[in-house]
Structure formats: C-alpha cells, structure tokens
Amino acid sequence: MKILITGGAGFIGSHLCDALLQNNENHITVLDNLSLGRLANIEHLSGNGNFEFIQGDILDEGFVSDVFAKSNFEIVFHLAANSDIAISHTKPEVDVNNTFLTTYRVLEMMRIYGVRKIVFASTSAIYGDPAGKKLTENFGPLLPVSHYGASKLASEAIISSYVANYQIQAWIVRFPNVVGERATHGAIFDFIRKAYKNHIFLEVLGNGEQNKPYVYVKDLVEAILFVWNNTSDQINIFNIGVDSRTKVKEMAEIVLKEAGLDREIRFTGGNTGWIGDVPEFEYDLTKIQNLGWKAKHSSTEAVRKAVQQILLLTPQIINL
C-alpha cells in the first residue's frame, strides 16, 4: 500500500512509520517541514527501500500538488499540526495555519488526485473543559478552550464535509496526552530541563492537582492501526487512551526520582498550567475497548517509561 504520512518525522509520526514498515508491502512517504519533526527520528529508516522522506511545507500548494501528482497514494495519515498548545495563545495564527489549513490542503489534494482514505490525528482538546464529565465520542457541545483544540475541531468538521461530498472514508482518532521517546516538548520535557538547570527547586505550573490520562506513544500507534484495520464506516471516530490518570505533581515526583535529583517542588498556584490548559479530564473508552483494544501501559507507567527514555537525552534537553 502506498501511504503518505504528513508530519512523519515528528514524535508520533516517526513511531507510526516504524509500525507501518513492519509490513513489507507498505511503501511510506513522509512529508514534513521539520518545524517540529527531526531527521534524527527517521534516520534509521533511510536505507529502507520502502521509505521516502520529502521535506517541504503542506501550505505550499504547488509543492504539495507535485508530491501527490508523482505518487498514487492510497491513504493519508495526517499528523502534521502544531502540537504545542501553549505557544498559540500569543500567536493564534500558528494553529490556524499549521493545524487547520494543513488539513484543508491535504483534503484538497486528496479530492484532486483521487485519494479516498484519511486517518486524522485529533485530540482531547476538542472537548474543551468538561467540568468532571467523562468524555464519550458523542459528548457535546464541543467548546474548545485552546486555539489548538478549536483548529482540530474545525479540521474534524471539514473532514466530515469532504467525506459527504467526495466519497472519502475517514478515521478520526482523538488522543489525550502522549508521552514517550522522541518527544520534543511537554511537561516531562520541561520538568527535566528545569530540574537540571535549577539546583534548588522545580517549578510546576498550577497547583499540581491537574489530573489527566497519559498514553505511551507505542500503545497509541498500535491503537491507531487497530482502529484503522478493524472499522469500515464512512467516518470512524474513536477516543484513544488509558483507564487511569496521573497528576502533574506525581509526574514531577517521578522525574526527580528517576533523575536522582533532590529538588523542592514549588507550585505557581491556580488549577491550570497556562491559558488553554484543561486541568482535568477522563475518557470513556468503552467504544475502543468493545472493539478489542486496550493500552498495555497505565498512565503512570507511561509517564515513568517516558521519563526514563527522555533522560537518555539529558544534555540535548538542557541546552535547548
């Protein structure tokens, strides 16, 4: 199968490449502008004859049209997006351009060149702040509190309209917080960097009681492919996650323990870490579990495993 992965040099995308290339019948083309992705994530695939990397910007219509014109893609895994929620508070255009308009551009290329299948990486951020309610795929109204969540929700909406108008089939998978090796930002990343730079205390945004599910990246990729291979509706929407959650203060404690560092944990106060942060949410995973999938790692196991992996890159993290 000829597969295009947008954002394939990124954290999640590179793990998806690894999984898909286990099937020797798949030919993978990665399209990434390397704004967040890294060549180091995919350099181990450079000698694989079924793998191709193309650097470029999806928003460049002429460029991306050439990519589609030269290949007969059968499916697009669309992961390209801004994945740093906090940054778009001061620069809303980051998510409008890199999260929503990239989706529109991919869909247009699919329409023009006859590609009929898309797997879309969505997010729990589309649900907004659910105020203690457990989130099912049918939860509503959907009122995002971040530009990232709003742009992902807008992407889901335009995918729906393209499905209805152009006989496209879609898989929409909504992730919670994803952790693991090759991550480039996020709370774990920030805690490790702060802890090594400040020998007295570790600053934690908010009150530390923020409580969310964290899914290990390899579990996530397994779930994406499981949903894709085992559902066949015109639009297939699934929450992907774990049954457990981890508090931010617990994450900070795990970082210090695994790093062998003695630091006081200081909280900045308030129940959110930044504007657009959702302090607490919980997925209802009945739909995907009834399909037959469950994560191998709990939330806290995923966090600990991610910390251990990221600590191997400590010198690079500190110097960022």
UniProtKB/TrEMBL annotation:
Pfam families: Epimerase (PF01370)
Residues annotated as domain NAD-dependent epimerase/dehydratase: 3-241
Similarity comment: family membership: Belongs to the NAD(P)-dependent epimerase/dehydratase family.
Database matches in PANTHER family: DTDP-D-GLUCOSE 4,6-DEHYDRATASE-RELATED
UniProt name for this protein: UDP-glucose 4-epimerase
Organism of derivation: Dyadobacter koreensis
UniProt lineage: Bacteria, Pseudomonadati, Bacteroidota, Cytophagia, Cytophagales
